[in-house]
Write a structure and sequence with these properties.
single chain; alpha+beta; about 25% helix
Length: about 425
């Protein structure tokens, strides 16, 4: 029973995963992203391991999700073979549309930045490393991964992620819960579901820790079952599912992901725009260019950080610049918009997180640590500037089709 342990550049949990598979009586085989993809068909199941594929460039999981290897996993999942994505592997499955498995593998949800909430207050954001409790949800499918677990079985597993918060549109969430696809939920030690920190460690909607496709053979799971024997039941379930050799029958999900419609960016009338440009090599832009360049062969790409600043006076604006909170003079150049206009053959895509926690955080730092008052608003975005010999319509189509710059459930995107 050979299981492919799939690794992309930056994956780092392969050893723990292989040991867990061995404990369950399966034969793990390391499978690198650049091996012949046709060999995937020879395996009985697959695990996409945790880590930081491509250093989480652009956003967690997206570059690996666009790798041609993922087509082989789609085909294998359609044959009923089990596919488990752990942590970064879960992010890859979500961005590739294998979970929850909408028509034509449309992306239907997001795994985005953690938000630790208690009594309505945000206690922290970003990376969080801790032990948590979770259990199978009351309606959760047994599927390929939970046949040895009941809603009364509480697991204690570690988490270690910065973008593990499930965001799901209400119509899809209702269908997911009705169908039992919200397989595992964060809970207290006694199994109670409390939707606040620390029981819910990342603000995930309805405490979701792991989400399945409709057939139950693909699972995107943020906690790490491979790092402790407490998670072995999940791998034993995977083994027994493979032994049964049954193709799961499942009704397709009804939810249809809307097509993103971009509007032109218009700053607030009183705002000043600040563009930050790296003076050293931009590895994020190079990685995105490599992946997107497969769809746009003549592509040239530049990435800039964009700040929209509203303050009460020019003096306040100068204090903000002098603080270097928004840019590092040793490796970044600060430009006003008029000093960095788009070229005639360029098209700009401005991407802003819907909650913009980075903008809120920087505003608090400027006020609390630097004593700068009079900042009315501070909004953070990323500006992707695209040049290509293809038509602007084709460029836009390829960018939106890939969703490489933004996930529409976590970000807003504008023409710039």
């Amino acid at each position: 029973m050979r299981i492919a342990v799939i690794q992309f550049p930056g994956s780092n949990c392969e050893r723990e995963t292989m040991l867990a598979l061995q404990r369950a009586g399966m034969e793990p085989v390391e499978f690198l992203w650049n091996q012949p993809h046709s060999a995937l068909a020879t395996f009985a199941g697959y695990v996409l391991v945790g880590g930081f594929s491509y250093e989480d460039r652009a956003r967690s999981g997206i570059l690996a999700a666009l790798d041609p290897l993922m087509q082989g996993l789609r085909e294998a999942s359609q044959q009923g073979k089990p596919v488990l994505g752990i942590c970064n592997g879960a992010q890859i499955l979500v961005e590739a549309g294998l979970v929850p498995g909408l028509e034509k593998n449309q992306v239907g949800l997001a795994l985005t930045e953690n938000k630790r909430i208690r009594q309505g207050k945000i206690l922290g954001t970003g990376f969080y490393n801790a032990w948590v409790h979770l259990r199978r949800s009351d309606r959760g499918l047994t599927g390929a991964f939970a046949r040895h677990l009941t809603p009364q079985t509480v697991l204690r597993l570690p988490i270690a992620h910065g973008e593990g918060r499930f965001i799901i549109p209400p119509a899809l969430l209702e269908e997911i819960e009705t169908r039992g696809l919200n397989l595992f939920q964060y809970c207290s030690e006694s199994g109670a579901i409390h939707d606040e920190f620390p029981t819910n460690p990342n603000g995930s909607i309805n405490n979701i820790a792991a989400l399945s496709n409709a057939a139950g053979n693909v699972l995107a799971m943020m906690p790490h079952p491979e790092r402790t024997t407490a998670g072995d039941a999940i791998f034993h379930s995977m083994r027994d599912y493979i032994r049964e050799k049954t193709l799961p029958a499942a009704r397709p999900l009804h939810y249809q992901a809307p097509t993103p419609v971009l509007e032109s960016y218009r700053p607030t009338a009183t705002a000043q725009e600040l563009l930050i440009e790296l003076t050293i090599t931009d590895n994020q832009a190079l990685s995105v260019k490599h992946v997107l360049g497969q769809r746009l062969p003549t592509l040239q790409l530049k990435r800039q950080t964009h700040w929209e600043i509203e303050c009460d006076s020019p003096a306040t604006y100068e204090k903000i610049l002098a603080s270097e909170v928004l840019h590092n003079k040793r490796k970044e150049l600060a430009l006003a918009r008029e000093r960095s206009p788009l070229l005639p053959q360029e098209i700009g895509f401005l991407v802003r997180a819907k909650e913009d926690m980075l903008g809120q955080q920087k505003k608090q730092i400027l006020e609390n640590h630097f004593g700068i008052q009079g900042i009315r608003a501070l909004r953070h975005s990323v500006l992707w500037r695209v040049q290509a010999r293809e038509s602007l319509d084709l460029i836009t189509h390829r960018v939106l089709q890939s969703q490489i710059f933004f996930n529409p459930y976590a970000h807003d995107c504008y023409y710039y």
